[in-house]
């Protein structure tokens, strides 16, 4: 195994306006344990621990999991590794919301007080720890009053089972409602938003990330390579056959359940891939490394959640700390990946172009100002 250079080691950022500091690369553990749907590239316990060891050698201190990953196996694998480490050296995040019990248990799902309190106890047992650093709601729950969910998270902070609450996969209005409700009830605030964010999926810049900027919430992008789409394995007019991307592309049912559907991608996606490839060649870097580097240099990003199915892939991903994109290259990637801006955003941004506060200046305003 190659020696890790100092230039490759992680940098550290505060999570939002909290005092919690994490590595700018977060190791995601979705690949730990056997996949219930037969997804290729999963890691057994021994190899998962090797990935964790290598990540820690880079200085990585931030690890993300969820109870639903491999139906608890991911947390178990992480737990058997954590119990051999200095616990205080690592920031562990996990999530709850999805069904984790038998179908006969109607309360084993959602964000009710009952399910959250049950879920955290089970996660702590699997993780072999007394506390979780960031406990995240995995998805908004329309069936549970928001006050119930947020008071429960606050109680978990107060009793020491979690250090900070966070959320994942929410709309702009949902995030703002969460913030306003916590403020009104004087509860411990959320510190992070875990959201899909990459060169192909930038819609959260319209509203959720504006809330994050205004409220001091850190953004933790998941699927930074859009499920393998931004690795170069998918090419214009070619059906992918390799790895997870090929596994999804070869089955219509998987495509219907997965994002993206590789059989009918718009031309713009390939424009993004080809632009990233051209920029990467100037630096001797891959398409994936360009996509990750672009995310690292976005002002809302606290830490990028990456996965790895091999140690070589992990090394490639971690190498994004060795170099930077120029302002011109960032603009190129911004322009080629700018999504269509629908009403009312287009009108609001355009007519406010001369009323911009530089602390919340948005790339959409830049694009509409041309």
TrEMBL record:
One cellular-component annotation, GO: cytosol
The family this protein is said to belong to: Belongs to the aldo/keto reductase family. Aldo/keto reductase 2 subfamily.
InterPro entries linked: AKR, AKR_Detox_Biosynth, NAD(P)_OxRdtase_dom_sf, NADP_OxRdtase_dom
A Pfam family assignment: Aldo_ket_red
Residue ranges that the Swiss-Prot or TrEMBL entry lists as coiled coil: none
RNA-binding among keywords: no
A single MF term (Gene Ontology): oxidoreductase activity
All copies of domain NADP-dependent oxidoreductase, residue ranges: 24-336
Keywords of this entry: Oxidoreductase
Protein name, per record: 4-deoxy-l-erythro-5-hexoseulose uronic acid reductase
Alphabetized Gene3D superfamilies for the sequence: NADP-dependent oxidoreductase domain
